Amino acid sequence: MADINSSLEIKQLVKAEKEQINSHAFIDTHTHFDAPVFDIDRAQQVQQAYMQGVRHLVLVGYLYRYFERMYDTKQAISQLFSTKFESQDNDNDNDNDNDNAYLHTHIALGLHPFYIDQHTEEHLTQLEQLIVERRPLAIGEIGLDTFNHEMKAPDIFAKQKRFFEAQLDMAVRHQLPVMLHIRKAHAEALAILKANVYDAHKLGGIAHSFSGGTQEAKAFVKLGFKLGVTGQITNPNAKKLRRAIAAAVNSYGIECLVIETDCPDMTPIMCQTPDHSYDLSERNLGVKSDHGVTHDRNVPANLPWVLSSLSELLGISHARLVRQLWQNSCDALKVEWSYPINSPE
After folding, report:
1. Higher pLDDT, 184 or 343
2. What's the CA gap between 159 and 176, in Å, rounded?
3. Closest alpha carbon to 306 in 217, 232, 210, 207
4. What is the pLDDT of residues 187-224, one digit of tens each?
5. Cβ of 218: how many Cβ atoms within 10 Å?
6. What does pTM read for this prediction?
7. For residue 1, is pLDDT > 60?
8. Is the peptide bond before 133 cis (omega within 30 degrees of 0)?
9. Is the pLDDT of residue 64 over 60?
10. Dihedrals φ, ψ of 145, to 5°?
11. What is the C-alpha separation between 160 and 173, in angstroms, rounded?
């Protein structure tokens, strides 16, 4: 990983903070900002995210072999601010932090269903050991995925369900929220959640990058999960998703939503280039431009576009919505992070 500490001066960030009196503050509840596609310019992306109001950013796990990389990224970002906050470079993500003049990075650890063939029983044991030793913010992303034919194979899907249930049990044992990845398996996931002792009303939780329909949206919210809204909401052609989000809000209020970038994936439509055709789902590959920057990567600084499109869809002002989304994120993650006092009422 590139040394980002030497690339960015904290004075620039402090100045940016003073200049953004009229901006909003955000919690990016789901990112893969540790991915190598950000190595070339991570420092610049941290600065841009900070200037756009991002104050908390969650790095979410998917493969055991990348867990340490996530902690390295967290430490590197913390070092950018070490001259101002020398005491906050630690691994415990479950602290109550009231200082938002800082881009705080947090860790969620989980074994992703799409990569189930790469997970072993030993990884489950090692995951729980890390949970005990480092106390992450959440467990995730976990769940079920039948996106392609291979993932629907009975043995593969059975292993997915076993790992999903095992990680839900870990969340109960350690009293941590979960981040769900559910793709084309909503009915099966809901059945498991209803049968498991995990209670999102008490422990929190997010249905990350929600992609189901109206009934599924309401079902997850009824179980206590917040619906994670990504850059997909910016696409006017995503009619099923937009209907589902609007219906959930109509039934349960705006308290049921959080926003996320899921970077480098889910790029808002207004941030895409005309040749948007690159698959960044592996999160460690990417097509690079002549200047070395990956085409159409999503970045944390794009989060305001999600707010803007959601505001338009729901007919709710930016100022009201952004504050509620902040509180919703805190509720989902069971933390107490104060909203920056320099942001508008």
Report:
1. 184
2. 23
3. 232
4. 999 999 999 999 999 999 999 999 999 999 999 999 99
5. 19
6. 0.87
7. no
8. no
9. yes
10. -150, 120
11. 20
**Does residue 325 contact residue 257 with C-beta atoms inside 8 Å?**
yes
How many residues in total does the chain contain?
A: 345
Beta-sheet strands, E only, within the chain: 26-31, 54-60, 104-109, 138-145, 178-183, 206-207, 226-229, 257-259
Cis peptide before 236 (omega within 30 of 0): no
Angle, CA 302 vertex, CA 297 and CA 303 arms, to 5°? 130
Domains and CATH numbers, the chain: 10-333 (3.20.20.140)
How far lies 303's CA from each of 28, 145, 258, in Å? 7, 25, 11
Separation CA 137–CA 57 (nearest Å): 11
58's CB contacts (< 8 A; 6+ apart) are: 27, 28, 29, 30, 31, 105, 106, 107, 108, 137, 138, 333
What is the arithmetic mean of pLDDT over 171-185? 98
pLDDT band for position 92 (cuts 50, 70, 90): low
Q: Which residue in this structure is represented by tokens 């063939």?
A: 117
What is the mean predicted confidence (pLDDT) over 266-290? Answer: 60
Rg (CA), the chain: 19
Among 232, 300, 307, smallest CA distance to 269 is for: 232
Average pLDDT over residues 125-141: 98
**Residue 331 corresponds to which tokens in the numbers above?**
């509720």
- When pLDDT is averaged across residues 116-123 and rounded to a whole number, the result is 97
pLDDT attached to residue 296: 82
Backbone angles phi, psi at 80, to 5 degrees: -60, -30
The reported pLDDT for the residue numbered 102 is 83
What the block records as the tokens of 168 is 């839900």
Q: What's the longest Cα–Cα distance across the chain? A: 56
Rounded to the nearest 5 degrees, what angle is found at the Cα of 34, between the Cα atoms of 118 and 212? Answer: 65
Task: Provide the 3-class DSSP secondary structure of residue 96.
Answer: coil
273 falls in which pLDDT band (50, 70, 90)?
A: confident
- What is the Cα–Cα distance from 182 to 53, expressed in whole angstroms? 29
